[in-house]
Structures are given as C-alpha cells and as structure tokens.
Amino acid sequence: MKKNLLLLFAGLSLAFTSCGDSAPESNLEETQHDADQIADGQADGVVEFNDGIVAHVDMGELQMAKLMDLDDQDVPAAEMLAAANEAMADVEQRIKTLEALSPTGIGGDDFLSSAIDHLKNVKAVAEVYAEFSNDLETPDSLWTEDMGAMWMNLAEPIFADYEDSYTQLEISQGTYGSLNNMDIIPSDVTIEDLYEESK
Predict the structure, then answer these.
(1) Distance in angstroms (rounded) separating the CA atoms of residues 111 and 55
(2) Which pTM was predicted?
(3) For residue 46, how far is the Cα from the chain centroid?
C-alpha cells in the first residue's frame, strides 16, 4: 500500500551536495545559516549561491522527513494536518525567497529554476499528507482497498513528480558546478541527521 510507494524515495534522503567547508556548531545550524545568507542577499559568488540553494532544498527535505516519520507513526489526523500545513507554509516561503533571487554564475538560472520546481513538488507532497490525514492515522494493515486505490491514484503521480524533480535538480547542480569550474562534493550529512538534530 502506501509504504511500498514511500520506500521508493528512501534513496533520496541524502542531504544535497554542498561546496562549503565551514565547521558549524551543528549541521542544522549551518544549513539554516546558508539559507538565511542567500535570503538576506549576503551570499555572493557561485559557491555561496550553490550552498544557499542547497540549504533551502535540504530544509524542504527536512519537512518531508518529518511528515514521513509522522506517517510511520500513524499519528492522529489533527497532528498530521498541522504538520502538513506547517510544511506547506515553510516551503512556500522558501519558494518565494528563491524566486526573488538573481542567478549567479553560468547556468545559475537553470539550477535555480530546478530548485524552485523541486520545492514546489515538496509542497505538493505536503498537500497530499494534508488531504489524506484522516486515512493516514489508520495503520497500513487496516487500510481498505478503496483507501489504497485512492492513495495510488491521487498520491502516486505527485510522488513521481517529486522524484523526477529531485533527479533533475541533481543534474542541474552537476551542470552548474561544471560550467563554473566548481567541485561538487557529496555531503556526508543526511536529511535523517538534520531531522534528528531538529527534534
């Protein structure tokens, strides 16, 4: 049922790649710092632009991790709905922040556009969690065929768009790095790490 679909996205949980080399007090604090810098217009240059974009994407993925965790716990509908609404508001603000940016570096417009598109799909997934909050409080083993069919028909395409936009974002970032002679170093910090720090 729904768990089988969500398992498809377990491989997407690695934190996006970054060029930064600072030593923060915590990974979550560094991610938020990078997001704040680009939002405040303090980030200049391709490295700072990359890291700011990455930070906003990672914070969006952090919202996904929270929602998936609540789904796993079969929390009451009101709790899931509140978390989904919070996620939508957070991601919407990040989208507005990125939409107000001027691209930096060669190919910065494509990289930025891919990040915005992915965050829009993160928001769409959060909307799914809100819409299905009543069903999600029911353990998977107790879902009816109708509940499962509704999930697959309405949620599966949105999760597929989410997966596709993540893949496109990875490609866009790699191209951006190559065009600007910038090494993209895979992060050893996962979204799960950020989520654990956020609790």
Answers:
(1) 13
(2) 0.85
(3) 21
Torsion-angle region of 12 (φ positive above 0: left; ψ -120 to 50: alpha; else: beta): alpha
Residue whose structure tokens are 């956020």: 198
CB 19 within 8 A of CB 182: yes
Q: Are 151 and 1 in contact (CB under 8 A)?
A: yes
Dist. CA 186–CA 188, nearest whole Å: 7
Read off φ and ψ for residue 17, nearest 5 degrees.
-80, 150
Lookup result for tokens 């992915």: 118
Dist CA 108 CA 134 (whole Å): 41
Query: Across-strand partners of 190?
Result: 14
Using one digit for the tens of pLDDT, what is the confidence trace for 74-119? 999 999 999 999 999 999 999 999 999 989 999 999 999 999 999 9
Structure tokens at 116: 């915005």
